Amino acid sequence: MKTLTIFRVVCITFFVIILNACGGGSGSSSYPAPVTMSGSVSGLKSGSFVVELNNANPITFSSNGAYSHSILNTNTDSFDVAVVSQPVGQICTISSGDATGVVDSLTNVQITCAPQTFHIFVSVSGLVDFGGTQLELIDNNGDSLSFDQGTESAFSSAIDYNGSYSVSVKQQPSGQICTITNGTGTGVVTDVNISVICSTTVFTVSGSVTGLTGGQQFILLNNSDDPDVITANGNFTFTTPVALKGSYNIIVYPQPIGQTCTVSNGSGDSLGMNVSNVLVTCSVNTYTVSGTVSGLTSGQVTLMNNGADPLTVSINGLFTFAVSIAYDSSYVVTINQQPVGQTCVVTNGAGSGIISNVSNISVAC
After folding, report:
1. What is the pLDDT of residues 91-116, one digit of tens each?
2. pTM for the complete prediction?
3. Residue where a domain stops, chosen among 266, 284, 302
4. Is residue 60 part of a domain?
5. Is residue 305 part of a domain?
6. CA 250, 256, 257: angle at the middle one, nearest 5?
7. What is the C-alpha to C-alpha distance for residues 223 and 72, in angstroms, rounded to an integer?
8. Residues 91 and 137 occupy one common structural domain
């Protein structure tokens, strides 16, 4: 009888364990419940991003459109959908991503992606209000920013990820000259800070141009502003001087047709005297003439370009003439000496009005 009582206790205990394990007892299950999350993605330009439900169940999205995912959730009383990894250059946000109450699905979870943007912050120093015109800056989006004293502000328009910016002086203040530092940039991946120095003490920036061919012209810019049109060799001076302690940065834009002009001594900062040693040197653009030889079995073949510049080739492969040709000129490649026992033929061997390197000449033997 004692043995039977023990057996009954063991059986009852075992039954209770099985019942609880199968969810047949009172209380909720400890197993994750399946949840369906659906909605759509819009605005994604490239790359991918990751979304999580209740800090778990990561889902990777790499395209726009409708989606539906079945996932496991350990807490069916509260739902929170969040983007945990953003695509490069974009910010994705979620709407209708929260829910409470015991449910088995989340519908209409909308994910909208937009370009990541940055702002241009401006710091002005040395500006004195003389009761006349204010300092006015303008950016490449056409937004303007006015100052009547040294202060900080920001342009209202934003720059997209990897975008560019250009800030110039639209109007100088009364009695002073203001000079911008770091006024242009490209490949923007963070907020931009530029500085503007204003002063009643100013210095000129000047120099000389050599090598410009007749009839050509180009534009010099100082700090991406104050354009100076250059039509001949000789001296130049920018119209707008640079403020005391300001900076200068001279570039050629655009280049003259068929030439390349380079600037020496073209930048400096903390200016305390006139600048007069800027040198702009222009030269005619030249281009290489090259191609390939194939089928050569023995000996060598001698090529010429425009009846000169002989080039002897003894193996198959690439060749390049030693003398380059000038902008807008022509080339004619001929065979000056055939290889012994073979005949070589030139294809694509002539051209005119050249504005880039030539590389498609074929010599087949």
Report:
1. 999 987 666 554 667 888 999 999 99
2. 0.72
3. 284
4. yes
5. yes
6. 155
7. 59
8. no
